[in-house]
Amino acid sequence: MSGVEVIRGREARRAEGARRARGRLVRRHLLVYAGLLPFILIAVFPVFWMAVTAFKTDNDLVNPTVFPFWFHQPPTITHFTYLFQHTYYGDWIYNTMVIAACVSAITLLVAVPAGYALARVGLPGAENMGIAIFLGYLIPPILLFIPLSRVVGLTHLIDTKWALVLVYPTFTVPYCTWLLSGFFKTVPPEIEEAAQVDGCGRLSALLRTVIPVSWPGILTAVIFAFTLTMQDFLYSLVFVSVSDQKPVPLGVATDLIRGDVYYWGSLMAGALLVGIPVAILYSFFLDQFISGITSAAVK
Amino acid sequence: MAEVELVTGGRAAARRGTFTRDRLVFGYALLAPAVLYMCLLVGVPFFFSLYLSLSDATVGSQVARFVGFQNFIAIFQDSTFRMALRNTVMFTVIAGICKGLLGTLMAFLLIQEVGGKKFIRSLIVLPWTLPVAISALAWKWMFDPQFSAINYVGVRLGLIHGWPNWIGEPGLAMAAVIAVNVWRGFPFAAIVLMAAFSAVPLELLDAGKVDGATFFHRYRYIVIPVVAPILFVGLLFDTVFTLSDLSIVYLLTFGGPMGTTEILPTRAFEIGIQAGALGRGAAIALVLFPILLPVVYFLLRNLRRRETL
């Protein structure tokens, strides 16, 4: 056997090996995709079905003889126009925006100073105070809604959106304080020290140096204040029963049913129009949410 | 010379004293609004609810009499409440196990290096990120007795026989409610686990491989000790969310048919708000407290560990 043949044999073997490796890779990819496919279908299908329902004409929707998951009459936006012309949907969106903006503002005003104090000032017992504040997040609304109905009753805010502005910070403040205190710990202390050496007071050092470099954390806190507000159902159900004061999830769930009849087209249109933007916004910040609540275990 | 040093030293110490006091005042002033708010709207209501549960307070009346443990005795004599308690425990346990299993499976698939992983992930987290009331409505439509999309698919695939009314039949309604909770919660479990897997030190795995540790040993001694506590914390959080969520049952079945999907949150809402018996409603909600207590204890212990690290 000549040397050349040996080399050729080696090359062929190597090519064979590479082909086999590529085959293995392709097989593994296919296997993973095949495994993920049912999960994707299950996760996405209800949303797809909502979308199809929202754009179907009523006749098309209740026609039992056709394949239900596609259009047999041209898509329509009548369910959406109906929402804005014949229901309080416009008010609900406005209420949701006002509630979210006010809750975010209150949360920041309270949670930024508290998070900073816990992370930086070196108070004795800061750790226990931080945990005590976070405990508020673990006392779920279900334990509080009955006594809070009395408290909200005292303030005469009941049946207005301001009742929700008052109670929603009970879950946004503890979560955002916790998140921000973790964030402030990562800001290098040298920058405030430098500002203080330059003659800034403590407060102005905080406002001029720490806050400006912390805006990603603050933005995250605002997003969570907004999305956690959107996830609530119980408090709005208990505290607001006047139609034009409701936020969107409650309004869609309780006001779009007349008698016993569900108007699925407009129900799904109303649900989708708000649900999708919230879901997308939330999914961008999901990793931070997860690491916010589990970071102890990760370290 | 020494005297001068002593004097400046003393002055510095005095300055440091006011420095510390200023700092403490500053710190507590920053903390005060949060503490005050949480005391007034979480602490006070919580203790107020303990008081309510021992009184005969109703929505209408301004005065409430102290009645001792009468509310608790009464609710435990109520068969609907007992069913609600049993359902709550069953619902939480079964849904928790399903979410853990499905989440683990999905996390294993999602940590594989395949193309389009980010996109797939963003689709799969949709159930968790949609507002819960909105997804409950979508499922109510999917379970619609007449136009059920699930039946349509199931019958054509030969998985379902007849045309079951998912939210109207006692045996099926609970399964439907659990299914929606699992649908909503499994992406959370999966994302938590993916975070956990990414925390596994790769160097250690490689070192283990070099040192001849078997696949099983690498899992047993490197991966599981890192992943297990994170999954545990994720499931604890999920338990808090599941125990306290009323919207799925409220919107899907309203506790029916015949109380078979009644859970403590819906029962507390019916008695405390709809029937106006605040005291009794508070008592029902407080039955959740001993169930939540161990969960909260473990979560707080975990947080304390974060603080000390």
From TrEMBL, chain A:
It holds the Pfam family BPD_transp_1. GO terms for biological process: transmembrane transport. GO terms for cellular component: plasma membrane. InterPro entries: BP-dep_ABC_trans_perm, MetI-like, MetI-like_sf. Residues 93-285 form the ABC transmembrane type-1 domain. It is a multi-pass membrane protein. Keywords: Cell membrane, Membrane, Transmembrane, Transmembrane helix, Transport. Belongs to the binding-protein-dependent transport system permease family. PANTHER family: INNER MEMBRANE ABC TRANSPORTER PERMEASE PROTEIN YCJP, MALTOSE TRANSPORT SYSTEM PERMEASE-RELATED. This is Carbohydrate ABC transporter permease. It comes from Candidatus Segetimicrobium genomatis. The lineage of its organism: Bacteria, Bacillati, Candidatus Sysuimicrobiota, Candidatus Sysuimicrobiia, Candidatus Sysuimicrobiales.
UniProtKB/TrEMBL annotation, chain B:
Its main location: membrane. It is a multi-pass membrane protein. Signal peptide: none annotated. Keywords: Cell membrane, Membrane, Transmembrane, Transmembrane helix, Transport. Belongs to the binding-protein-dependent transport system permease family. It is found in: Cell membrane. The keyword Cell membrane applies. Residues 85-301 form the ABC transmembrane type-1 domain. The chain crosses the membrane at residues 25-48, 89-111, 123-142, 172-200, 221-243, 282-300. One of its GO terms (biological process) is transmembrane transport. This is Sugar ABC transporter permease. GO terms for cellular component: plasma membrane.
